[in-house]
Design goal:
This protein is an alpha+beta fold. Among the domains are: about 190 residues, Isoleucyl-tRNA Synthetase, Domain 1 (Orthogonal Bundle), CATH 1.10.730; about 220 residues, Rossmann fold (3-Layer(aba) Sandwich); about 220 residues, Isoleucyl-tRNA Synthetase, domain 2 (Alpha-Beta Complex), CATH 3.90.740; about 60 residues, no CATH class; about 80 residues. The protein is built from 37 helices and 43 strands. The strands form 14 sheets. It has a six-stranded mixed β-sheet with strand order 13-11-12-9-8-16. A four-stranded antiparallel β-sheet has the order 7-6-17-19. Strands 32-31-39-38 form a four-stranded mixed β-sheet, with helices on one face. Helix 17 packs across helix 23. The longest helix has 28 residues. The chain is globular and about 120 Å long. The structure holds one RNA strand of 76 nucleotides.
Length: about 1100
RNA sequence: GGGGGGGUAGCUCAAUGGUUAGAGCACCGAGCUUAUAUCUCGGCGGUUCCUGGUUCGAGUCCAGGCCCCCCUACCA
């Protein structure tokens, strides 16, 4: 049995198995919490307490949650539980991230769509509904998983979320009711879904909620008011599968090596017949869009004759560009780049209609331009420029007023007007381009190269560059001087620096987080907030087609007020596409009816607004004041410096000019145990559900909480085994306590002496427990779960391997009753306190222990107990701790001596001499040590010179500089003992004098002695044995063997036996009583017949066999 | 490409320029124990990435090279 029946008779603890089934234990605890509304009681109990505000970073509700989410959720839950135990009131609200491309991509996959066009063809309304439904599906799933993890949040009922999901499809117009904070809330599914997380409905917040979207509109309107919102035309990275631009924030995640064709080709010069510019590119699909060729005015260029062609080429690039044929080249002329500028040339695709239209007949506009960034290390030092197909190209195009040729549409298909390329996919046209280059005689040679190339971080499609209009929030200028030297005007016009100032107000953990965030802010370009997609925030931007004026709507009510058409389309609906697109407003400058730009918002807007939207920034000033800013946010830091942390900071800075949180606690990534990323195909990944089922949530939480947040965690089964092993030690102490208490009928609340009158072991473990409480509190206040776990593991270890091991006899039925009740009371107090302070980390296991040990009602829980710091403060006794520390270390030394001397511990010895190196511990502690070392007497010794030689260690950092090259000789002499001691405490070595502060005198055990030394503590064992000692050793040896046999035979503690020993053991007869007591024998006889042998043991006088018989 | 961090035992990581480079895990041996899946003592295990340099002395400082990770980038 796993021992968790919650209605044990009052006179005893519920018996527990030493080998618990942790998984079923957890399920029992979760059921108990549910049945007793334990979490609800905690909320009621902490209501009105000093607020502690946690702001949850939303989890993307798009898939089941993974073990990596469990790391963060462990932190979130344990810090919240800890704060509740301190008496704080909390909001207990977690959030789901709902809008964005990641949801769209999955819905597209489910529908089997292969292109963006299909979404509009098959109907946008249905697509958006499916996105909402998918979010609700996984919100429900992640809710269930989080509850399984033991995470206490104000959860929605998962079944209700699914009910909403289904109603949305089946009966969207029909009103239904769901549970709210104060009774049922009624509405259509669409309306209710839009209000999830609201003050009325409660539960998790959803970033697709009406309020969340509405507040982002307010933010964008504010940006516009300050002149920071603008439409930019640029050549942007573009995913042709998703049909949308990729912002700078998203770029870094998608770089990967890719093999591409690269090509060297010539551009014939118009005014220098027979001569060509040689250029190189790795993106052949951009060649038809070529407009210019750039050279570095400062570099040197050569005209070479090569295989019948005359080619201009960068002087340093000749060999690389011409490849193996380079030696055949003959240099005809040399010019600097500046001399080439303005040369006109022709190109292969000049006669294509689209090109001719942009450049004039025969590529009239082609020319050589100057660009100082052209390098001498790559290509031909003459760069092919296609202003529509690269961001730097575009910038040059603008400066040089070049025409632009945009060759592909949003799906990556070549537009009409490019001959045979038209209608082809951009990734497939290389061969057609090469054929055209061959045909025109332009091609020189081609090769394949591998380079880092950006890919779509969602679908891994290589990114093209397209000329597009996107909306940006200006980050402001970057000044070339330190932030503190900026003027007020400079700062007020630059959002970048305003955010940096806010960053300074936040505590970043680990501390490098601050530097990373500042670094990102310093370097980031303007924030691209538009996406040419469907499921997301509808950008409230209205650009007038007639006059070009831009209106940005700051709220839904403003939109409804300004609508001149289509307002009915959004009645009763969420502010999403396609319905929102129906609304027209009057242009503020020319009164024309204006439609919304079709773009949706960058999803980090959705997550970034939550410090405002969930804290009722606009709707409830009292609430807002109480909860904003948050005390803590915590997320996995890779990526978040430019994503959530960034958007949270930016939006809070714009809207309220202050920090959204007081502390940011970041942690790393979860990797598989082999140190690689988890991949299903590599067989090293672990699903959350599997981990919960096999290792258990508490073990998982313990493992995560004990990890170092600034490193990546290597998560797996052996790490879990380690964590479980540690927790099981705690469990076993608990099982011991329960077992013995039940067997002697001990119950808490009985008589026990005051702590001050109890024995040293009791006072020591209580003092250590007081220290434990203080240290764990200190660590958790500093968000240092790692330190808290380390201290807890030390506590478990000390309790088990020192306190309990040394005190075990005191719990037995035969022990002195007063002392036994002290021992039980002490162990009980320590265990209860220990599980209290461990409960934020392992909430289920600890509650199971607590309930059995200390429960006074059927509904109590460790999680309803106040943090125990006040209760334990008086237990502290530092002097005792330090004395005991030396006793423990002396015991280690003694064991080490025994091991070296091959004296087994069961053999008692007459005496140990100990140099404690300080005040001698009191008699009681000496008795503990004597017992532990199995010696009759501990003799404290102050002068151990008989056992030791004095050795002098020269302190190198102090004397090294002075001695120089004579140092080695001094060290050697000191090691050989060639040292003269002076009365002053100084010494002379090699004729040089060293003052006492330049040396350290060490005591080193003499060779051959049974002595061990460490840090000034010395233990020597007297190894001479008397017949009495030998006999006592035999008694203990025999007892141990009998106990072993009893255990093997499955005998219980109380059962008595008859022990039969052989005649050869008659010498032990005087000790019969002692033996009988220790092994629970009623009688011992010495007529054992070897044929009936069931046990065997080696004693001083030889091997004997023995047998036991059950009597009761 | 730029910036930062790192490379030490089979694995995870320590070591203000100082004497014989340490822990934990893993492995091996011994010991303790009717609470234990535990615990204790000991052992095994090292080209401190490579090559030079500075120094009485280098894992540590300097230079160059190799490799890994992170941040960042428009690279032809």
């Amino acid at each position: 049995m796993t021992g968790v029946a919650w209605h044990a008779p009052l006179h005893m603890f519920t018996p527990v198995d030493a080998k618990p089934d942790l998984i079923s234990l957890e399920h029992q605890m979760l059921a108990r919490w549910r049945a007793n509304n334990t979490f609800g009681r905690l909320k009621a109990q902490t209501a009105g307490g000093e607020p502690w505000s946690f702001l949850d970073g939303p989890i993307t509700a798009n898939n089941p949650m993974g073990v990596h989410h469990a790391w963060g959720r462990t932190y979130k839950d344990l810090f919240q539980r800890f704060r509740a135990a301190l008496g704080h009131e909390l909001r207990w609200q977690q959030g789901f991230d709902c809008q964005g491309l990641w949801v769209e991509v999955n819905v597209e996959k489910e529908l089997g769509y292969t292109s963006k066009r299909q979404i509009e063809e098959r109907g946008l309304a249905e697509f958006i509904r499916l996105c909402k439904q998918r979010v609700l599906t996984y919100a429900a799933r992640q809710t269930e998983q989080s509850i399984r993890l033991g995470m206490w949040m104000d959860w929605n009922d998962p079944a209700e979320l699914l009910q909403l999901r289904d109603a949305l499809a089946v009966a969207p117009e029909e009103e239904i009711a769901i549970h709210g904070v104060a009774g049922d809330v009624r509405g259509t599914p669409e309306r209710l879904i839009g209000q999830l997380g609201s003050p009325e409905i409660g539960g998790s917040y959803f970033t697709f909620s009406d309020e969340n979207n509405d507040l982002i509109w307010g933010f964008l309107a504010e940006c516009n008011r300050r002149g920071w919102l603008y439409k930019g035309s640029d050549s942007m990275p573009w995913c042709t599968r998703c049909g949308t631009g990729i912002s700078q924030h998203e770029m870094t995640e998608g770089y990967a090596d890719r093999e591409d064709p690269s090509v060297y080709f010539g551009l014939p010069l118009v005014d220098r017949p027979g001569e060509e510019l040689l250029v190189w590119t790795t993106t052949p699909w951009t060649i038809p869009a070529n407009v210019a060729a750039a050279v570095n005015p400062a570099l040197s260029y050569e005209l070479v004759e090569f295989d019948g062609r005359r080619l201009w080429i960068g002087a340093t690039r000749r060999v690389a560009a011409l490849g193996g044929g380079a030696p055949r080249a003959k240099v005809l002329d040399v010019k600097t780049g500046s001399e080439l500028i303005g040369w006109r040339y022709q190109a292969t695709f000049d006669d294509a209609p689209a090109v001719a239209e942009a450049l004039g007949p025969r590529g009239a506009a082609h020319r050589v331009i100057s660009w100082s960034d052209v390098g001498a290390e790559e290509g031909t030092s003459i760069v092919h420029i296609a202003p529509a197909c690269g961001s730097e190209d575009h910038a040059l195009g603008v400066t040089e007023s070049l025409p632009m040729i945009a060759p592909i549409d949003e799906a990556g298909t070549y537009l009409p007007g490019f001959h045979e390329l038209s209608g082809q996919d951009w990734l497939e046209v290389s061969d057609l381009v090469f054929a055209a280059l061959e045909k025109s005689g332009s091609m020189l040679r081609k090769e394949r190269i591998t380079h880092r190339y950006p890919h779509c971080w969602r679908c891994a499609t290589p990114l093209a560059f397209r000329l597009v209009d996107e909306w940006f929030i200006s980050m402001g200028a970057t000044y070339d001087k330190p932030r503190e030297e900026l003027t007020a005007e400079e700062k007020s016009s630059s959002l970048r620096y305003q955010i940096m100032d806010v960053v300074d107000k936040i505590t970043w953990l680990p501390s490098f987080g601050r530097d990373r965030e500042l670094d990102w802010l310093r370097n980031m370009s303007d924030w691209m907030i538009s996406k040419k997609r469907y499921w997301g925030l509808a950008l409230p931007i209205y650009e007038c087609a007639s006059c070009g004026a831009v209106d940005v709507i700051g709220s839904r009510s403003e939109l409804e007020a300004r609508a001149v058409a289509g307002a009915e389309a959004i009645l009763g609906r969420s502010p999403h596409r396609p319905y929102i697109d129906e609304v027209r407003i009057a242009c503020s400058s020319c009164q024309s009816a204006v439609r919304r730009v079709p773009d949706v918002g960058n999803p980090w807007l959705d997550a970034g607004i939550v410090s405002l939207s969930t804290m009722r920034f606009r709707s409830d000033p009292e609430y807002w004041k109480r909860w904003f800013p948050a005390d803590l946010i915590t997320e996995s830091f890779p990526g978040q410096f430019r994503n959530w942390f960034y958007s949270l900071l930016a939006m809070s800075t714009v809207m309220v000019g202050s920090e959204p949180t007081r502390a940011v606690f970041g942690y790393g990534l979860v990797f598989a145990e082999d140190g690689r990323q988890m991949h299903k195909s590599w067989g090293n990944s672990i699903e959350f559900d599997e981990a919960a089922d096999r290792m258990g949530a508490d073990v998982m939480r313990w493992l995560f909480a004990g990890s170092r947040p600034e490193e990546n965690v290597h998560f797996g089964w052996s790490g879990a085994d380690e964590a479980r092993r540690r927790l099981l030690v705690l469990w076993n102490v608990y099982a011991f306590h329960v077992g013995y208490a039940n067997s002697v009928g001990w119950r808490p609340g009985g008589p026990a002496r005051p702590v001050a009158q109890r024995g040293a072991m009791d006072r020591w473990i209580l003092s250590r427990t007081a220290d434990l409480v203080a240290k764990v509190e200190e660590a958790l206040r500093a968000y240092d779960a790692h330190a808290a776990v380390a201290r807890l593991e030390l506590a478990i270890d000390e309790l088990s391997t020192w306190y309990l091991r040394r005190s075990r006899d005191r719990f037995e039925i035969s022990a002195n009753a007063d002392d036994r009740s002290d021992a039980f009371t002490t162990l009980h107090d320590v265990l209860v306190t220990l599980v209290q302070v461990a409960s934020p980390i392992a909430p289920m296991l600890t509650d199971a222990i607590y309930i059995n040990l200390a429960s006074d009602s059927d509904s109590s829980s460790v999680h309803l107990q106040p943090w125990p710091s006040d209760r334990v403060r008086s237990w502290r006794d530092r002097k005792l701790e330090s004395d005991m520390n030396r006793v423990v270390r002396a015991a280690e030394l003694g064991r080490s001596v025994r091991s070296a001397a091959a004296l087994r511990t069961r053999q008692p010895l007459a005496r140990a001499r100990v140099v404690f190196g300080g005040e001698t511990p009191n008699r009681e502690l000496l008795a503990v040590l004597a017992d532990e070392l199995n010696v009759k007497l501990i003799e404290p010794v102050s002068d151990a010179s008989g056992l030791f030689e004095r050795k002098v260690k020269v302190l190198l950092p102090k004397v090294g500089k002075r001695l120089g090259s004579r140092l080695q000789a001094v060290i050697t002499a000191a090691r050989m003992g060639e040292v003269t001691f002076l009365p002053t405490g100084a010494v002379v070595i090699e004729g040089m004098e060293f003052s006492p502060d330049e040396i350290e005198v060490q005591a080193t055990p003499r060779e051959g002695g049974f002595v061990a030394e460490a840090d000034g503590l010395v233990v020597e064992l007297e190894t001479a044995l008397t017949p009495e000692l030998i006999a006592e050793g035999d008694v203990r040896e025999l007892s141990r063997a009998v106990q072993e046999l009893r255990k093997r035979s499955g005998m219980r503690l109380g059962e008595t036996i008859l022990l039969a020993l052989p005649k050869s053991a008659r010498g032990l007869a005087p000790y019969s009583q002692a033996i009988a007591r220790s092994v629970g024998a009623r009688d011992i006889n010495f007529d054992h017949d070897d044929s009936d042998e069931s046990g065997k043991v080696t004693l001083s006088f030889g091997d004997i066999g023995f047998s036991i018989h059950r009597l009761s």
